[in-house]
Amino acid sequence: MPHPRPWSLLTDAEWSLLAPHLPLTGPGRPIANPRARLDAIFQAVTSTLPWRHTRSAHAPTDTIHRTFRRWAHAGLWSRLLKLAARRRAPGTLRRLVDWLAACHRRTYRILGLPVLALARRLNLPQALPGPSWMLPDPDLSEMVHRAVKWLLTQPLTRASIPYLRTCRALLRTAGGRARIHPSLIPA
């Protein structure tokens, strides 16, 4: 996997692509400088530091994190990641995939399993909050449940026991690991 793009301020071309997708108002009032807010969010998610240690000249850390969470609940990071992952996405937007993946990765604690499913469906492992083989896989789980349901409609014989055991092992795999060592979690 290539090295992720280091943080820098958004270019005018990047801002012009992202601006139409941003909700430019907070609860009750407009965001004073949305471009600076987005720059601060990208700076925070591309660093290895927790939110409380990030600094911005444009807004307090709590405000930046609150904006990030609001935009996550609004589905902004998922929408932008989908746009950037398209085959015919503009090159300017494709250059932001690493930053959008970092934002998407940080929404896992906010949004849960749909974040994992989307990153897997888009084939963007950098948008996953850990190694894919250690994380839950909702799509695999659904597929195995359908197979088990079909198997149970058939008469049970000794020949079906290995299939059921395989399904049980696949369901364990689909559940992911309970703990992931911090060294395996991407920054």
Q: How are the SSEs ordered, and which strands pair?
A:
Layout: H1 12-18, H2 34-46, H3 61-73, H4 76-85, H5 91-94, H6 97-106, H7 108-111, H8 113-121, H9 138-153, H10 161-174
Protein name: Transposase
Domain Insertion element IS402-like: 10-80
InterPro entries: IS402-like_dom, Transposase_6_like
Task: Describe the protein.
The chain has 187 residues and is mainly alpha-helical. The chain has 2 domains: 12-129, no CATH class; 130-187, no CATH class. It contains 10 helices and no strands. Helix 2 packs across helix 3 (61-73). The longest helix has 16 residues, at 138-153. The protein is elongated, with a radius of gyration of 20 Å. The two termini are 14 Å apart.
Task: From the structure above, extract its key features.
mainly alpha; elongated; 187 residues; Transposase_6_like; 2 domains; IS402-like_dom; 0% strand; Transposase
